[in-house]
Amino acid sequence: MAFDDLQSLWNSDKSGDSIAIPANLEKLKSAQLPVDKFRRRLKKEFFAQLAAVIFLGFVPAIMTFNAYLLFAFYLMYFNFVLICGYFFIKFYLFYKNMSNTALTSKDNLYAVYYDIKLSNEFYKVFSYCLLPFVIVFVGIILINDKNISPTAILNKSAAISQSKVFTIVGLLLLVIVLMVAKTEIYVHVVYGKYAQQIKKLLDEFREV
Amino acid sequence: MKTKEKVFLELIEQHKGIIHKISRMYMDTKDDQDDLAQEIILQLWKSYDNFRQQSNFSTWMYRVALNTALVFFKKDQRKPITTDAVPDIPADEASNTKELQLAHFYQAVQKLERLEKALIFYHLENYSHREIGENLGITEGNARTKLNRAKTKLKELIKQQGYGF
Fold it and tell me: Does the keyword Magnesium apply (chain B) (predicted)?
């Protein structure tokens, strides 16, 4: 079979005539494109984060905080909400931003790669921005739970046993490790594989 | 149904053979091919507002369809098929021979890289090197070199299947 034969074979291929075109486009759902997958994950992530932010606001009421810890807690909470709000808007804008698939293939791949990388970095920055807040929140909750007076801590007159110190520091370290691991694993699983595949594809376009 | 959607579906109906060919070049199982065809139609619909009527619909469609196929990845849970079975068809029947030849072609194409598939597709659709370069975003010279390599590779792959050029 010569390549010209292949050409005529290709032209005569009518097997596509049998494929069914959907009668209604509303039934079509995106399945496999990386950017669409990210958008869906982003949407889920947004609702999960929103629920977490709202729940956090009720923690002092649920745990009956001492009056002197309430102010510190809600001061931090206010900043926390501001930062979350900023990132929620950024994620929303990314979610709404549509890639133009009518670009040249190379430009389209760069756009997809850029979207993946940007989304990846946004997620990391968002997670690490929240880390200090989470540490302070956990600290406040523990201090409240262990009934330690902040005034006593400031006056260095608090009688905190070594085991309490170890418990608090240990729990804070655990929170840090879990948050970092969650962020890195999530980014690797969700974005890493696709970023590698798109990068490999872009390498194929290089001049020879 | 809205007029725009109706016009779009009529255009897709006219060009569905191309969607089928691209899906068959990029995916090796029927399920994956159907998924890709659906994804291509969806992406075409999403981009339809960007389509300028003065340009050729099929030209615009090739680009969007191939861009979709290039970044379309199989569902993880599906096992990749490593040996595409070429149907056992008696060679003396002309139409069946064509089927067999096409099956050999698509089987060999599965082993090409994604960009090589796009180059072969444009070549079989009679695009010049310059047009291939313009659509893929590479230079004419690069398109020529890469296409020649892809054609040589494809010939070798078909030969390996015992179906020589």
Answer: no
